[in-house]
Design a protein that fits this description.
By secondary structure, the chain is mainly alpha-helical. The chain contains 19 helices and 5 strands. The protein has a 5-stranded mixed β-sheet. α11 links the parallel β3 and β4.
Length: 451
């Protein structure tokens, strides 16, 4: 089946096409491409962040405010054909906080140069693609390792195809590295790989600099074969990167492609990239020394772009787990505070009282854990209170403790962190703190709180 995919009649960009396009480029197009490739300002040659904003905020001659632009975009969304907006409409019902996220809507407008109709289509396409990748059951969950990706953590740690590099390029731009040699369809399913990539892109879109200074993509593909990636799979990746998220791709560097990639994948990729991005595509070939020298001309360190150690990626996953738990807790706490603000005691509704009870409970959690002096354990208790179904290991990870997940047959007593404290000791400590909170809640007179 995979071999047949290579024979699909996909349009390609030939050497003759490339020569004609190169001859038609204007001086301004060449300068802008060089500035993006090398992280330079087209004005004075300094390494300053290029601006995404149009000269007249709101775009066009209307000079409309952002609120007006957003309203117009929502009207365009409603006006889309039913099949195009179906996934988005379901999102409005099932996850309104995500569907109505003003930041995401503003990013879509900016990415489409404040064209409301195109921005509406981008948002609708985002939700349609998200449902295709994650299925109806998970597509509307939070796009986190505790939500839509809750079953993917182990395989992400195993394959590590897409990831951020620890270092940025010489201009301070984020580098997204793709190791296509690890994308072997005989060991990882394509839909599974797509979910992993989607999550990394979601994380990338949360970085402010990805929308200003932009992102550099480095693709390692020295061992690409038909079993690892086909033109169809490569084009799907391009669609996700360029069409679904608001960040700016400043350049794409393909490192040491073999003959298979050069003959079957790259011609189709060039066609799909379009005129602008084709000028920002660089292919590095030759020996390791030649490639190192070639990449250095664009402010890239070849050693940084090589496959990083597994421990680095594991550390990133642990940091994401902790960050997402903390953000979830803060969001809930802010929601409770928002409900309470501006209301007199006489006008507090039953829902607001429930929020106050939750805040009181979290206060008890703090009191029960504060004397012990470790804020990580306080956060672990809070995470367990918020979601009693999570394991002790996940609660500790959310609190900020870093432990490798014990393999089957390995006792938690034999797993230690950097403080030389075993995982079992931390679990026991967490259990004691939870019992203290239970005892404190039991003394509350209203009987409304429960764990």
């Amino acid at each position: 089946m995979m071999a047949a995919a290579v024979l699909d009649p996909l349009p390609v960009f030939t050497a003759a096409d490339e020569a004609r396009e190169k001859a038609s480029l204007t001086p301004s197009e060449v300068i802008e491409a060089e500035c993006d490739l090398r992280g330079l300002s087209s004005d004075n040659g300094e390494s300053t962040p290029p601006s995404d904003l149009p000269s007249s905020f709101g775009g066009g001659s209307s000079g409309a405010s952002l609120n007006e632009q957003l309203s117009q975009m929502l009207e365009e969304l409603v006006a889309l054909p039913g099949e195009e907006k179906a996934a988005y409409l379901r999102a409005v019902i099932r996850c309104p906080d995500q569907a109505n996220d003003r930041s995401r809507q503003s990013d879509a407008l900016r990415r489409e140069e404040y064209d409301a109709k195109r921005a509406a289509k981008r948002i609708a396409k985002y939700w349609e693609e998200r449902v295709l990748i994650f299925g109806d059951a998970k597509a509307y969950l939070p796009m986190t390792l505790h939500g839509a990706l809750s079953d993917e953590v182990a395989s992400m740690l195993e394959y590590r195809i897409d990831r951020f590099l620890a270092n940025k390029d010489i201009s301070g731009r984020i580098i997204l590295c793709c190791d296509l040699a690890r994308a072997d369809s005989t060991t990882i399913k394509m839909d599974e790989e797509a979910r992993h990539l989607w999550y990394v892109l979601e994380c990338l879109s949360q970085e402010v600099s990805s929308r200003t200074t932009g992102v550099i993509i480095v693709v390692n593909c020295p061992d690409v074969s038909v079993s690892k990636i086909t033109p169809s799979v490569a084009l799907k990746r391009i669609r996700y990167v360029l069409g679904m998220f608001p960040f700016r791709i400043r350049a794409i560097h393909v490192v040491q492609p073999n003959e298979c990639a050069l003959q079957t994948v790259i011609p189709a990729v060039k066609y799909a990239l379009g005129r602008k991005m084709r000028q920002r595509l660089v292919i590095h070939q030759g020996s390791d020394e030649e490639v190192t020298s070639s990449m250095a001309q664009f402010g890239l360190n070849r050693n940084d772009a090589k496959c990083e150690k597994e421990t680095i990626f594991k550390s990133w996953i642990h940091q994401r787990l902790a960050k997402e738990y903390a953000e979830s807790y803060i969001a809930r706490q802010n929601a409770a505070t928002h409900v309470d603000q501006g209301r007199s005691q006489a006008a507090i509704s039953a829902k607001a009282r429930k929020y106050k009870t939750k805040k009181m409970l979290m206060s008890i959690v703090g009191q029960a854990t504060a004397p012990r002096g470790d804020s990580r354990m306080t956060r672990a208790v809070q995470a367990r209170i918020r979601n009693p179904k999570i394991s002790s290991y996940d609660a500790l990870t959310a609190g900020g403790f870093v432990y490798p997940r014990p393999e089957r047959g390995v006792s938690p007593m034999d797993v230690y962190d950097a403080d030389n404290v075993s995982l079992q000791q931390r679990k026991n400590q967490l259990s004691r703190r939870i019992r203290q909170v239970r005892d404190a809640v039991a003394t509350m007179n209203d009987g409304n709180s429960s764990i």
